[in-house]
Each structure stands twice: as structure tokens, then as C-alpha cells.
Amino acid sequence: MKSPGNVWVVDDDRSIRWVLEKALSSAGMKTAMFESADDLIKRLDKEQPDAIVSDIRMPGMDGLALLNHIQAINPDMPIIIMTAHSDLDSAVASYRGGAFEYLPKPFDVDDAVALVRRAVEHAYERRIQSPEVVDDTTAEIIGEAPAMQEVFRAIGRLSQSNITVLINGDSGTGKELVAHALHKHSPRAEHPFIPLNMAAIPKDLIESELFGHEKGAFTGAAAARRGRFEQADGGTLFLDEIGDMPADTQTRLLRVLADGEFYRVGGHTPVKVDVRIIAATHQNLESLVKEGRFREDLFHRLNVIRIHIPRLSQRREDIPRLARHFLARSAEELSVEPKQLKAETEQFICDLPWPGNVRQLENTCRWLTVMASGREVLVSDLPPELLDQQDQGLALNGNWEQLLRNWADQQLTNGRKTILNEAVPQFERAMIEVALKHTAGRKRDASELLGWGRNTLTRKIKELGMEDSSGDEDEDD
Ligand SMILES: Nc1ncnc2c1ncn2[C@@H]1O[C@H](COP(=O)(O)OP(=O)(O)OP(=O)(O)O)[C@@H](O)[C@H]1O
Q: Is 403 part of any domain?
């Protein structure tokens, strides 16, 4: 019993679309043709094909970006990339990104049909072999904004590697989701992904949590226990909020990364593990290094590849899709009809500041699913704190203090500590940058604008690691 197949083709060249549509339909397959990758992605919201055939070069999103996008949301979707011989490098890249096959142009129509048929059968077999692939959609990452496309591209590029990755981004931007995607698209995918949040564990338990302990290692250690490192053997250990790792643990971690082995707390036999580390932080690790709060050598070990996840307010174009996704998910969880945002509600939420990022949007959608009375969500149905936020936003022009209060409030609500360590350097950096802009980079004049002595400004610039951006260094000293 074989599925005839539902195949989507995307190519900006009308004649290729025409040829493939004819050939695939004659072979009994259902087809849909798209002029651009963006059109195809829009349709993916509603329906999923069995396979996709995509040109490599297209205006707008190209074939490889599409490949990365789809790989991130549905790693099992077979994709055939069409490419001219001259684009062999890109074709190789498409393999690494996880394409099913590539089809060199110009192609023989029968070969093309045979290839597509194989892709469809492959998809079909995977589906019957592993019903749990449906579960994969829990890790769907939504992001059409250019800044998120960068993130998808990085996931694609890293897909065959075991390299250490450092993910930067504010709380709730999706760092764990991206770490999970990196794992799922790595050679370690069949092994465990173990997340551990440094900020969420009391300091004196971190070591035993990471490395495990032997029976009787400390009061309360009634039995021996494997730590996260051992649990993650062969797989990936995700260390969230690495900036909060205590100094002693940093030293131990560094040693494990260098030696590939460690001792359980209270243990005397070394334990060998093979673990890929993905670390994440909302803090500026370089600043922590400068302040002596994070080991420089550990920082360099972790900072091999860096991925930055933008704030939700820097990718507002994704808000409507994210909201639909979360409304659908909470409706499913609660077995109710999904709520729909009225156009003005959608517009309203697109303009909000979202200091809690995607997580805040997700929580809002869950709240709406339970609390909004009708099927359609009106602006007045939104949780009161969001309506307040908008008032604050309107009154904001000039009211940076209110923004700062919101930020501090949010940080403390999220359980953060020592928030001045992050806020003060940011504040100073902003003031210095603006003053230097007004003086075309002249520090002496900028120090006057700020009300600091020249030496203080020079020292601050150094401490804040702003030397590259501070403009002309050769002025009169
Ligand atoms: N682009 C996205 N598409 C779909 N869901 C997302 C996206 N980004 C984040 N989410 C969801 O938002 C929630 C928060 O994401 P996640 O836990 O990955 O954030 P985080 O940056 O690790 O947060 P924290 O730093 O507070 O731990 C999760 O439920 C996640 O599934």
C-alpha cells in the first residue's frame, strides 16, 4: 500500500513549474506549485506535503534557507533541491543541511519523477515506522523574521557537528528550544538532551547535580546518584544561565571539558563521558569576564560558535504566527476550540513591548484560551497587565524610567539576582555611546557632555570593553 503522494514544487521559473506539474500529476501525484519560498511557508501553516522540490536560487528566500527553515520545524520532511551544475558547492551544502536529494538541472523528467517518488515513499515509511515523529512538532520553531532566519541557518550549518555552542538572548526568547533543535539535528540526536538551569539550583547543590555523588558524600546523600553529565553521555548537556555558575563549578567544568572525565562528589574513581556542551546566557559574558566573575579560559572554551536570539520586539513580524501557534496549542491541550484574534487585537499585540519575550506571549495565549469569553478575541479581552503596558508605552516618550522599572520588575519576577551588575554597565554604555555620537567620537568633548572627567571616561570605555567603538583614538592626549 503506497501513498500516491502530495508534492509541492517551488521555483520562480514558470516553465519548470509547468513541466513538473504535468509530469508529477501524470504519475498520479497531487501537486501544488509555488512561485516563492515565502508562499510555500505560508501554506505550511495549514497543510503539510509529503515532499518538497525546491529550486536553489530564487528571489527572496532561497532554497537553502527554505531547507534550513523546514529542517528546523519538520526534520523528516524530504526536500529535493534543484540546482545547476555550476552550483555544486551549494548542492553539497544542501546535503549537509539535510536535503533528501539534489536534482541537477537540466534534468530528465522521468528521473525527476522517480526521485520524487522515492522521496514520498521514504516519507511514508518513516511515518509508519515512527509514529512518535509527530511529537517532534513540540519543538517547532517559528521565525520568518530575518534575525530568526540567521538562527535557522546556523542550526543547518551546525547540523553535522559536535561543536560547542554558546547561545545568547534574553529570558524567554527561545534559547532552550534552539539548543534542542541543535541537538536534534546533530549526530547525537539518538542520545539524550539534558537541560540544566544554573539559576534554578541552589549553589551548593550544583556540583552534585552536574557530576553526581557517591553515597554519604554529604548529609542527605543517602544513595549514590548519577549527575547530569553521566545522564547526557553520548548526547548533549544544555547549561542554561551559565553566567550564574559558581566559580568553583566553573573550574571543575573547565577540567571536565579538557579531560573528558570527572569524579562524582565524594568519589575516587574517574568517570569518563562523551558530552557535547551547549551553553546559554542572557548576560554579557565578556563583561562578567572583565569583572572577574566568569573564568576567561572557560569563556573561550564555550565561545566557539555563538548564536544570538533576538528579542521578540526585534521580530514583531513573527508575532501573529507565534500567537496562532500558541492559541492552537493551548486549545489542543485543553480540548477546546482555538481562539482567534480579531484583526485589531492582532495589531495591538504586535505593538506591545513584550519584555518577557516569546514565553510571555505563550502565557498570554494560554490565559486567553481559558479566559476570553467569545471565540474571537477582542482587545478588551487581553489580560489587564498588557493593557497597562500599552498605556505605559503611549506615555513612554521620554519616560525611560518606567521602562527601566518594567525591566527590573520582570527580572526579579524571573528570579534574577544582582541585577544592577547588568543594568549599570548597560546604562553607562548607552550614555557614553550617545555622547560620543554627539561629539563625532571626541572623548574630551564627550566627557564634558556627560559631566565626567576625561580620565574617568577613558577608564569607563576600557572597563566596558567599548574601545573598538569609541571612535578616533588619536586625539590630543
Ligand atoms: N520561535 C519560537 N517558536 C515557537 N515557540 C517558541 C519560540 N521561541 C520560544 N518558544 C516557546 O517559548 C517558551 C520559552 O522558550 P525557551 O524556554 O526556549 O526560552 P529561554 O530563552 O530558554 O528562556 P530562559 O532564558 O528564561 O530559560 C517555550 O515554551 C518555547 O517552546
A: no
